[in-house]
């Protein structure tokens, strides 16, 4: 069984940056495509970014050009670099992979 633990969330001013991490642990057999999702208060969880085992990526239109997903296979970790943050990016961010979800990390963008 695999566990995913996100970290790196926090409070940041509009225009600022944060880097989220998602570390996988447990019984890991091979690499896996990984995704980031987010859920704002009162809204459904939505797709943010995706990365394949070989590094191909895909992004939601709302974050294209501002967010970058990457991975370090040796560390079983996926990252989400978030730049030019906006108040509408405020949400709990979740990583997903290996058929499971992390517990989420809160990102708040506010002045």
Structure overview:
- The chain is mainly beta and 111 residues long.
- It is built from no helices and 11 strands.
- The strands form 2 sheets. Strands 2, 4, 5, 6, 9, 10 and 11 form a 7-stranded mixed sheet that branches. The protein has a 4-stranded antiparallel sheet with strand order 1-3-8-7, with no helix packed on it.
- β9 and β10 form a beta hairpin.
- The chain is globular, with a radius of gyration of 13 Å.
- The mean pLDDT is 94.
- The percent of residues in helical segments reads under 10%
- Mean pLDDT, nearest integer? 94
Supply the helix-strand structural class.
mainly beta
Determine the strand fraction and express it as a percent band: over 45%
Number of DSSP strand runs: 11
Q: Describe the global form.
A: globular
Low-confidence stretches: none
Give me the number of helical elements. 0
How far is the first residue's CA from the last residue's CA?
Answer: 40 Å
Helix-strand string: EEEEEEEEEEE
| Alpha-carbon Rg, integer | 13 Å
User: Largest beta sheet, briefly?
Assistant: 7 strands, mixed
Q: How would you concisely characterize the structure shown here?
A:
With 111 residues, this protein is an all-beta fold. The chain has strands at residues 2-7, 10-12, 18-26, 34-39, 46-51, 57-59, 67-72, 77-82, 91-97, 100-101, 105-109.
